[in-house]
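Lab meeting notes turned into a lecture example. A postdoc, R.K., suggested we walk through two folding results consecutively so the class can see how the record format repeats. The first protein's sequence and structure tokens come next.
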Amino acid sequence: MILLSACLAGFNVRYDGGNARNDLAAQLVALGQAVTICPEVMGGMRTPREPAEIQDGNGGDVIVGRARVVNRRGVDVTKQYLQGAQLALGIAQRYHVQAAFLKQKSPACGTQLIYDGHFSGHKIAGIGVAAALLRQHGIQVFGDEELSRERVRPWVDSAVWPLLLENGR
């Protein structure tokens, strides 16, 4: 089973109320090969919501208390991000997920890039809170730019694979 950021499957859960729909992600969910998460919503945040960024580190630092997540108004939302990450991990464990494809640059789901914490639009190398927690528990995490049929093949049921190829044409 594959774990996906819910926005990639077309759910309107992004901070701005929109989504980042990816056709392959939607197909994986429709074919029962993926489950979706939105750590921000799972942590109790509404949609739409103020954008948030990690300050003084990355998701791994947030987990151990060395950094925090703050929204654009200066409100500390670290607790919500940690709670959402824990719930996302619980879903991943329940479904025996081995790989996750998550929305890059998100303070929850970023896998290689996150914003720098100053709301300047500048991106830095780093990982989001949920992505870090998933990785710490042995789940392979990839950014949405890596979501491809060939990349997901190891985790797709062989009986479903022909349907995925057929739907992709």
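The second example is placed directly after the first for contrast:
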Amino acid sequence: MPHELNVVLVEPEIPQNTGTIGRLCLATGATLHLVEPLGFDISDAAVKRAGLDYWQYLKLIRHPSIEAFLESLPPDAPRVFISKKSGPLLYDYSFQPGTYLIFGKETAGLPDWILNAHAADSIRIPMYDARVRSLNLSNAVGICVYEAIRQLGYT
């Protein structure tokens, strides 16, 4: 895949979202990174019970903590933190091949300390009705992955 995108889920809590995102990553050739602790079991038996028959084909990397994940990144790796608390819009960001798209957990998003430390690399998806607290995580990931692919050129 020419885009070599990485989807990072920090402490995901809802297994159905992670399953949907895993399917998206497989369909688009992206690598899925799961940052622990996870709110569910992804053992082989649990994955089979959930009917995720594609899971073994997924490029999956687990990280024991957000600190360990951040330390594992090459210093020049393009990364973007997605949060409703960020200022710049998704469509104003210029994606690069190999970008790490980093999402927080469903109930709390990314921690403030991460957003503060990486404010220049943080973006948001526009929402036009203030009554909507947030988008579903799997929807947000899909929006961002396909915008990145659009920018980088689909082959």
